[in-house]
Amino acid sequence: MTKRIDLRSDTVTQPTQAMREAMAHAEVGDDVYGEDPTVRRLEERTAEVLGKEAALFVTSGTQGNQVAIAAHVHGGDEVIAEAESHIFYYEAAAVAAIAGAQIRQVPGVRGVLSGADVRAAIREEPNPHHPHTALISLENTHNRAGGTVWPLHALAEVQAVGRAAGVPVHMDGARLFNAAVALGVAPRDIAQYVDTVQVCLSKGLCAPVGSVLAGSRAFIERARVWRKRLGGGMRQAGVIAAPGLVALETMVDRLAEDHANARWFAEAVAELPGMDVDLETVQTNIVIVDVAGTGLTANAFVNRLGEAGVLCSAFGPTRVRFVTHHDVDRADVEAAFAAVAGLLQGAHA
Ligand code: TLP
Description:
Blueprint: E1 5-6, H1 17-25, H2 37-50, E2 54-58, H3 61-72, E3 78-82, H4 86-89, H5 94-99, E4 102-106, H6 115-121, E5 133-139, H7 152-165, E6 169-173, H8 176-183, H9 187-191, E7 196-200, E8 211-215, H10 217-229, H11 238-250, H12 255-270, E9 276-277, E10 286-290, H13 298-307, E11 310-311, E12 313-314, E13 319-323, H14 330-348
Parallel strand pairs: 1-11, 3-4, 3-5, 5-6, 6-7
Antiparallel strand pairs: 2-8, 7-8, 9-10, 10-13, 12-13
Helix pairs in contact: 1-11, 2-11, 3-10, 6-7, 12-14
The chain binds ligand TLP.
Ligand TLP binds at residues 9, 11, 60-62, 86, 90, 139, 143, 172, 174, 200, 202, 211.
């Protein structure tokens, strides 16, 4: 049987041997009592890497975002977010269900909002018709835009607009480390522009579970209450924080390989008939292809490619997403390209 090549997401990455060993040997305690030394080390180290006062280990990216939003806003408030952001698109309306706030969807350019767009979306107050704009939430890299990176000057613009209006800024940095590697800057050089930031350890960094939310000490204490409320207070969580530390310390620089593989794949696939790729969006480890020109729907394309042993995701009626990661190498990506080329020959035959 040929090897299955899984390009559905970087979430499918397996923990490395070093992570498994760190899990086996992790020193643990009850983290709800604040007594798990490994969790505390992960939180302190992540706060340092992101240049924030404090941090909180959470179960997932979704929990990190939702705990952050709930700690920032009140029921009836409004959260400004890019129109196709993960918090709007993929978190099961949690902002409405948990914080009781609504999202103001603002369309960006390749996932990036301008200061003027954000300024225009902030509600005028006092006005009894208007909700209070309580938060601006940015996504970096932006998933549905194709893993695009926020330029630092764009972050600075939004930060200035937020500060002038007294509205805090949160970053869904599920793939912030990809953004840092793509820009060649330190993670804190990105995080400095936002008040709070959530980073995932379980995507390109290969940890089995977990995200970390960072911000001011006072904010993290409020977030800790929300995490408990949502059932995220974990006990001997050091066993899952330990591989997270390995992820943070050893898995960031290698993301450059994933970016190079995505670029190679995107450029190769863009040459095939009917495959439409906006190469400007291919800045990190995500490649989105519009397959409309092949005459196939995204679902049909995904199913047929799956039969050839290559997995990818439907990302819209005719959009398909491929994500490179640690567990696929250049040879796998070349084999995936060959499978796509073969599928199209079949489709046109
Ligand atoms: N994204 C997943 C799916 O939910 C789409 C993926 O395969 O890309 N923010 C962003 C920008 C994300 O891409 C994700 C996961 C999350 C938050 C949520 O993280 P988890 O899955 O840990 O809750």
